[in-house]
Task: structure prediction
Amino acid sequence: MSTLAFFGGDKVRTEPFPAYRVMGEDEQRAAVAVIESGVLSRYLGTWHDDFWGGPRVREFEATWAEQMGCAHALAVNSATSGLYAAIGAAGVGPGDEVIVSPFTMVASATAPLIFNAVPVFADIDPRTYCLSPDSIRARISPRTKAIIVVHLFGQAADMDAIMDIANLHGLIVIEDCAQAPFATRHSRQTGRLGHMGVFSLNYHKHIHTGEGGIVTTDDADLANRVALIRNHAEAVVERMGVTNLVNMIGFNFRLGEIEAAIGLIQLAKGPTLVKQRQANIRYLERKLAGLPGLGLPPVDVGNEHVYYVHALDYDAAATGVPRELLVEALKAELPVTGLREAEGVLIGCGYTRPLYRHPLFRQQIAYGTRSCPFRCPHYEGTVNYAEGLCPNAERAHTRIITHELMRPPMSTTDLDDVAEAFIKVFSRLDALHDHWLRQ
Ligand SMILES: Cc1ncc(COP(=O)(O)O)c(C=O)c1O
Result:
């Protein structure tokens, strides 16, 4: 049995994994064509036909809406700005609460703060890591106005149950689809399961434009309000005939023409790129199945998972090896990935710590020094960001191992090396356990 690289033995592989490079000649040509046209953006922040953006932005929006089967798609410059615009369009404001997940990228929980509303954390389902309908139900108060549901790691939350709750209480549901474009639940695309969907096009995502985002909805009024918040609403409302001025203070969330032109090509490639990830996961999981203490991510009934990351549930009690040590041993066997060398081997412990453990929530300092909006005079609730608030999220944080080593263009040969590293490390758990005891 060969010695683990962690103890000085040979690595399974030294040659870097191929770069996650989803841009090709088509994107290059499209970007050059925009530069040659001389129109890199055509937005005007006043009431004019160009309020809606330039030709590529509009084509990208129309194509996205058609491909995803929704009535409206609005391009923005990130999912973060998309979430802000969606929360604003939902009419969320001071005194309101928005139910959010503690186990997600921060923007999906901080968006309510932008409109002076209070995020209320509900717990996650320990199987899917998405918001648990039961926990949402328990967190609803007379102040609840909306729910931001995150389709984490690439699979949809239990939207059937969540929409039942939302409809019962008259709540707006915003789906954060940043990690789950092209994912479906009961054959329906994410972004169409709630009232609004928000997608990310940053360079880590399934398809990307460097930075960028899309907001989708079937509701014409919500679409209009997202468009207004995206582009200096306050300057436009009067001429546009908008009389409901709630949250009509706009931002500049506009996407450029180059990004939109690239986005059009990426969108067409999306389904193929997703299929490659899914095939890679199937291949890898066949090899990882049965390793002690290593749980493969279950896919909820009716879901098609698109694997933004591969989240493994690691039970250190079953192996006798702490997760951090196991991950160090895995990293020692494997190389970095092209273009992301500085990040080291793309395997890590955990995802995010529960967001309420961030200083923002622990100290309740957001705007200015007076604890707005947590102790805003318009807010009649009492915030709770205490340790123990969401036990499933806290537990997941201590157990998950995530990796990105299934992203195209990883080949089966590359995946064989990933699997070999896991199998090698798991065959020497005894040596790692002894090492840990000696420390
Ligand atoms: C779940 C989730 N929401 C929101 C975002 C924010 O996306 P963006 O970087 O496009 O603002 C991300 C980015 O990683 C994310 O993973």
